Amino acid sequence: MRAWPFAAVAGAVGGPGILVLLALRALGQVSLAPALIGIAGIGLAAAMLGTLYATDIGRLRRRLGALLQPDGLVAESSAEPILPTFYEISREIARLAQAEARRAEQLLGLQKADAAILESLPDPLIVLGLDRAVRRANAAARSVFGDDLASLLRHPAMRAAIDHAFEGSATSSPGVQRTSLSVKAPARDLEAVVIPVDPPLADGGRAIVVLSDRTRDRAVERMRADFVANASHELRTPLASVMGFIDTLRGPAADDPEAQQRFLGIMAEQAERMSRLIDDLLSLSRIEISEHQAPSEPVDLRDLLNRSIIGIEQRLAARHITLKREIADDLPDVPGDVDQLSQVVLNLLDNAVKYGREGGVVGVAAAPAQGGRYPNRSGLAVTITDDGQGIARQHLPRLTERFYRVDKGRSRAVGGTGLGLAIVKHIVNRHRGQLLIDSEEGVGSRFTFWLPLAADPVRNLPAPEASRAS
After folding, report:
1. How many angstroms separate the CA atoms of 11 and 15, rounded?
2. Over the stretch 154-174, which tens digit does the pLDDT of each residue have?
3. Domains plus CATH for the chain?
4. Confidence (pTM)
5. Which one-letter DSSP state was computed for residue 201?
6. Other residues' Cβ atoms within 10 Å of the Cβ of residue 400
7. Sheet holding 434-440: strands in order across?
């Protein structure tokens, strides 16, 4: 108990009465004994009232102190103030504390709901502080970007949009910035919207960055343009040939069965070539559309290689080619798309059979590989070799370009479309792998594709959390 409330109340209550008694005694109106008794009674009453007052003040002070704590809760106590006025004040404090606790609980619930909504949004979303540091990143952002998130935020276009948003110097919508950017590894086309937040969020966030992946849309646009350009260029020759033979069959060869059979055979070959070309163009376009999305299903590469080898055994026998197989027995699974990886193996085996030496050897090898020529992480390397004519060094960098042929006449003669290695390159890129080509004229060629055993580890970026109300 503090001394000042007790002394103040005792003095205020007992002082006037004691002064009156002393004045009456001085005037001889009251004898000494009654005056002393009266003074003692007044002092006792003042002391009791001062004690009650000081005790109630202490209880109110404790209730107010509890109300100011971070959780805003006031513990119920049986020691209520005794004086009526203080009792009413205490009840009001308790009601205020309960209302504050309910408000804090509602606010916490809203924050949890907001965090859950942000976490479940399909588009990547990042919350930045005033220092441009990441405060939160939702599941889509963590899954899509992972360790690349920091480099994404350092992209010049993104940095400019963030700076302008914080400066409030936007044009159409004050403070809101929009920008387009392209990133590599893997290649993506993104649309970013930077929204400044004022007042700041509970976690200190001052800006929200919403990212939209436009890679598929842009790929579809490029696919349409490329398909028209490539199809019109590559289909023109076989189509003109077929039309020319049709005119010949209608005219000079109309009554020549032998010429008809010869021309119909050539027309069938040209039609088959056009069909293969269209199939390869469509396949390449589909791969490019999904190239930014790495596959994740486990693939047994040993089983895939064995099945692919069985599929070309007849062609190997037709050219008297010996297959040399060196596939490790304990190959681990790789994350991938089994159909696309089968396409890679079959394309490379098909090239080895087409361009290898008749009566020669085609090799298929697969084993774990890490470091050196390959990335410094766990992976598998599959190598397919042939002992054909080989390829001059100056042609190697361009082999994976669309329709690039080292020997156009020979390529068309063996049924090549000029798209096989382009398809291989894009599939390997989609699997976050690496394609290596080695060749020596007169010795043969060696095609190797390396695939990672697992995706790159993703840093645990901060996820949305509900902050406690203060």
Report:
1. 5
2. 888 888 888 888 876 444 455
3. 3-108 (no CATH), 121-213 (3.30.450.20), 215-293 (1.10.287.130), 294-457 (3.30.565.10)
4. 0.50
5. P
6. 19
7. 322-327, 361-368, 379-386, 444-452, 434-440
